[in-house]
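Consider one such protein record:
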Amino acid sequence: MKIVKDSLVKLERTILDDHDEQFDSVKAILHDVKNNKDEALRRLTEQFDHVKLNDIKVSKAEIIEAYGAVEKRFIEAVKQAISNIQSFHEKQTRQSWMDTSPSGTILGQLIRPLAKVGIYVPGGRAAYPSSVLMNAIPAQVAGVEEIVMVTPPNKNGKVNPGVLIAANELGIKQIFKIGGAQAVGALAYGTQSIPKVDKITGPGNIFVALAKKEVYGLVDIDLVAGPSEILILADETANPKLVAADLLSQAEHDPLSSATLITVSERLAYQVDTEISQQLQHLPKREIAAESIEKQGAIYVVSSIAAAVQMANDFAPEHLELLVKEPFSYVGQIKNAGAIFVGENSTEAIGDYFAGPNHVLPTGGTAKFSSPLGVDDFLKKSSLISYSKNDLDEYADSIATLAQFEELQGHANAVIFRKQNS
């Protein structure tokens, strides 16, 4: 792993923004789905996933079959994770409000859930039951009544049993065996089988990301997710074996995943480098992780934790771990991070699956202005205005003055005429 010794350097991401060829393909796929609906979905699934589907929708029999394909402890773990994630997101709920002034004017905000949401669950390199939980639970807590799930089928035309169990435990009834840009198109436009939704959330490959970007405006989306990232700030008290394990936990996602360590200890830097080499030998996805570590990974040795914090804030990582002495003393200094993991026991993997906070996080530096997926993402807000006659008469001239300054006499008239008629 690359080791850089510098008091303060700027962390750089590998920017992959040349997607013209993929974008052209995505636009063609979306156009096909918009016009040909289910017929296009079946044809594109056969073309890209090499599966000929008779039924697009997952049947009850397939869900029952899924329960027989996993161990009981997996089902129990899913139930425990659901409880934790629900409990966390229930604390994010908000209520509509109204405020009445002494003059009788009523102002407020009405908060309502979205009616219908689509969630995309990956199924390419791997299947992720956790993605079902993290996308569906905040929607359910928000009060969304209809959740439509899409996920790619395997070569046998089946959906991963863990994914089906996670969906069933949450009561999701509409599950479709469609993936890729075509699934995004189905959710955005609607087909004979798949209903049109108001918002699409969930991670996917570059084709899924570009498709979400293209349909934004017709529907809402959560974010355009980039490769996963972990940044660890560590001092001489950190355990090199645990630091290496946490770096590899993100590197195994994708060759483009970013795993970075910033430390004040040169000794720790070399210990972690050695540990990574050793742990890679026993990692099932070692080829993916090794490519990520080689091309995207780095260890930076800096002069102080303050310098490390400055670098971290500039980088704005998806996941940030504080493996330092008295880690809570630095939490207040962290300005930009999707999720902050404090102390040795708080490995990023806990956040991915179980603790409760959402693992759908801003990547690519967007933590500077974006937040984790949450209940608010599935709510819409309407302003409420009921102006009293007293306030209309008192402020009509001020309102008209502002409108006339903007040369919008019609706006001014709408207020002036009301005052004149009172």
